[in-house]
Amino acid sequence: MGKLLLIANPRSGKMKVRNKLLDIVDVCIKEGWEVQVHVTQGPRDAAEAAARYGETVDRIVCCGGDGTLSETISGLMRLKNPPGLGYIPAGSTNDFASSLKIPRSIPDAARLAAGKESRQIDVGRFCGEDYFVYVAGFGAFTEVSYMTPQETKNVLGHQAYVLEGVKSIANIKAYHMKVESEEYTAEGDYLFGVVTNSTSVGGFKGLTPKNTALDDGLFEVLLIQVPGADESFSNSISHEYIHRFCTSGVRFLSPEPVDWVLDGEFGGARTDVAVENLTKRIEIMARNVKKR
Predict the structure, then answer these.
(1) Among 48, 92, 165, 176, which residue has the least CB neighbours within 10 Å?
(2) Would you tell me how many other CB atoms lie within 10 Å of the CB of residue 182?
(3) Alpha-carbon gap, residue 55 to 44, rounded angstroms
């Protein structure tokens, strides 16, 4: 079938990639691929490998968590004609794999990644220079993913995010922002905000609609404003403080730098953030996902 580059992150999840690497290679060879393996050496290495080798291979398959997938796609976005992408989820939460209905079993996911069934997905562009696959966010709990040590994630899996989230409750801070889009424009104090293209964020479902489409050119945005004095996280927040809308682009302006998270990794402290949806920019090996 051609040349396939396997980008593997051995530190993802509970480091199960290390024990399954030969099995993955075997599946790809049986599917007819000539396989080259790149084991990531640190942060951003998956992006560099994808950009460096992407135009010399016919398929790239990344194996790791959502962060590894995000890095790989960021690397592919540098290429004029990126190859098809396969994804073998092996992280702690695997949000985007869940949205794509990719099997949890590594051998089954490898067969899908090395196979012929594919679909197009949207990619998010952040501040004109960075990319994300499934979430860009700020505020309460969003910092949990990049502040949780990898060793803790490896031992506890999704529970590590829950524990870190509980510890962060006492430090919840509101950010004054102006939000601008064709669908929603407002100014106020926000505790939390996410721009998503996924049915799951941080392993938690229900933040976005179940029928979220991954290729419609739209993001789902969720914003939570500071509740009234008689309301808190201990009871339900009135709907008037929760804002949801779909958009192809949105801008956030704040008087002070706000920390942003892109697909679980630190995206920088910014006062002016523009998020754009790049429609159907990457071909990923996956079965058809139910659309809106």
Answers:
(1) 176
(2) 10
(3) 18
> Where are the domain boundaries for CATH 3.40.50.10330 in the chain?
2-117
Say how far apart CA 98 and CA 203 lie, in whole Å: 9
Q: Give the domain 2-117 fold.
A: Rossmann fold (3.40.50)
161: tokens are: 């995010």
Dist. CA 164–CA 87, nearest whole Å: 27
Tokens of 124: 């998010």
* Segment 43-77, tens digit of pLDDT: 999 999 999 999 999 999 999 988 899 999 999 99
Cβ count within 10 A of residue 259: 17
Question: Who's near 235: CB < 8 A, 6+ residues apart?
Answer: none
Number of Cβ within 10 Å of residue 108's Cβ equals 13
Q: Alpha-carbon distance 72 to 70, whole Å?
A: 5
Pairing of strands 84-89, 59-64: parallel
CATH 2.60.200.40 intervals, the chain = 130-281
Do residues 105 and 94 make contact, with C-beta atoms less than 8 angstroms apart?
no
CATH number of 130-281: 2.60.200.40
